[in-house]
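Convert to structure. Protein one:
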Amino acid sequence: MAPRVNARHTTCPGCQQEVFLEELVSGRCPLCGCELEDTEDVCEGFDDVIDRSDLAWLLFHYFLYRKFEALGASPVQTLSLISRCEGAFSGDTTPRETTYELEVPMTLGDRIRVKRCTSCGRLFLFGGKKRISGDLARAGDEVRYTCRDCRSE
């Protein structure tokens, strides 16, 4: 690669770094986002690069992922839920499914507590599975336990 000794460059008024003119992004510094054409000391952010709706979706996906990660759901289950519900809250007129049901591991408190199977109604202490279900449009989750015998069916 050839050295940039003779390449046109300038100093950014915002970050005071040397910036080559061929690296500008829409006339802005690629490091801080200041406009270099007018050489004013006023810096503006990249408001036009990241759309606010994209930022809202990123935050929604992040907090949804964190919620299910804290419950113990696998990342594959969480990401498939996110992709299935894509567009549910974006204002589309077609209703999308926002319900979910995930299998999560039992916590220590769940393992030592007596549980009632939702399928057969028997009480059990060991084994079994824990499932959470709910709707993303509503608050709260429903927790259900199934015993070892009903789980195999």
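Protein two, convert as well:
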Amino acid sequence: MAGEHGEVSMERRRDDRRATEERQVSDMSSRPEQEREVTALGRSLDLVVYGIGQSVGGWWAERDVAASVRQVTFEDDVVYRAHYDFSPTRLADRSYEVVRPAYLVGHIAGTNPAYEGQSFEMIERDLRTGWTDEIRAKHGEWDAVRGYAKEAFARQRQRILRVSGEHRRVTSERPAMDGQASD
């Protein structure tokens, strides 16, 4: 009898876990692809951002940087993974998951308003400061992964330019649609 109760209990827990996972997948798939956020970004990324914040200060040290991290979507992650998988500089001994913090720190840097109009090379020193010995041991030397950070930085800057261009276009067209001449 006790064995049966244990088996029923284990089976019930398995069913509950399966139902929870199915509900999470269902909830996730009901959101548009570009709105889905990547949630588990990892301790390594936290350490890189913290290191940059400690060294550089300013925007990097603010709590709002965490909000920038949440702007990494599954679409972004898929694009970065594909970039890595097909990159001629792909590291043979490292998976995407290992170099992912480089992409993500570049992505986050692309949202930093202080970097507006600056090239990756101009802001790279800040990113390099967060790439500590602990991060290097786990994710590779900065020089080996910098191209991945650069790719993500460029992608995010392009997105911001595209969105701000759309905003300018919409706001400049609005007076014309109201029957007024635009500036």
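The chain has two domains: 2-30, 34-177. The chain has eight helices and no strands.
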